[in-house]
Amino acid sequence: MISSVPPTIRHGPPRSERPRISCVVPALNEHDSLLLLLPELAELLDQISSAWEIIVVDDGSTDRTPQLMTTYVTSNPGVYYLQLSRNFGKEAALSAGLEVSSGDVVICIDADLQHPLALIPDMLVRWQAGVDTVYAVKRNRDDESWLKRVGASMFYGILGQGQRVRIPPDAGDFRLMDKQVVDALIRLPERTRFMKGLYAWVGFKAEPMLYVPAERLHGHSHFNLLQLIRFAVDGITAFSTWPLRTFNLVGSLIAMLSFCYGSYLVIDYLINGHDISGWTTIVTGMFFFSGINLMALGTMGAYIARIFDEVKQRPLYVVKRNIGQKLPENES
Ligand code: UDP
Ligand code: MG
């Protein structure tokens, strides 16, 4: 799976040896990391592409990122700075970057240097061999707490239930995509941008590539446990109706069992007469069924909240400023 030999034989026009590449870098308070990443990335892109652009999407940074980027874009052609009006979340920032990108190939990469640039040439080789999306998959989750790991495996378990679209577990946003894939992603109208799911939904030929994430050198992760839970609920409600169907099934089962028990009680009453014992049964049953009811209502609520978000039709993000140089239009 991780051999460097391209496994796909492509039929159709050959893909360029040195394509036009767009890099989308979402950044929230990554001043120090951007200072290191941008020159390194530019140097690599010089070697592997005929023309390139690095789109830094500032997702409402409150550090010195705006000042840095304002001066950086003037002295570094090819770097484009898109500043959002506030923090809209990584998924919205990525969507913003994808929308303005125009390369034949688009690479999404975090600003924090956790995604090794050394993987990019290999990703490109696979693209040239005909793979439309090459996505990086963490080799292991040893760097994460057990709670995060158990949570992740439960999350992917639920997402994978009876899905037509298989969302690959542990695939992150570090990926290389053909222009066709990006165009398809941009056309998706939904507000809740659960990108991992959307990447899978659009289809095309995708292949994983294992990697070991680097340590974060500057700043800190922006995703705490609560945010991860919210993210998981978004993902599940956006891509699976399994929880709703499960409650339907559980409800039917309980109704059937209750009917049997009720019939037994009626027959018992007719044969043995009135019996006032059974307080424990009543109370336990009441708690149990109230619990199930509330859980089912809560699950429905999560889906309704999603519908609410979608019908408002608000834009995904608001751009405050865009400066720098975009990739020139393709001559061909
Ligand atoms: N990020 C962003 N908006 C956010 C949160 C994060 O643009 O609301 C960016 C962040 O600057 C980084 C990338 O998304 O470049 C990944 O974030 P982080 O490193 O915090 O996530 P982790 O690697 O811990 O999953
Ligand atoms: Mg990170």
UniProtKB/TrEMBL annotation:
Ranges for the Glycosyltransferase 2-like domain?
22-183
Q: What is this protein called?
A: Glycosyltransferase 2-like domain-containing protein
Q: Name one GO cellular component term.
A: plasma membrane
Q: Does the keyword Transferase apply?
A: yes
What CDD domains does its record include? DPM1_like_bac (cd04187)
Q: What is its main location?
A: membrane
- Molecular function per GO: glycosyltransferase activity
Classification from the root reads: Bacteria, Pseudomonadati, Pseudomonadota, Betaproteobacteria, Candidatus Accumulibacter
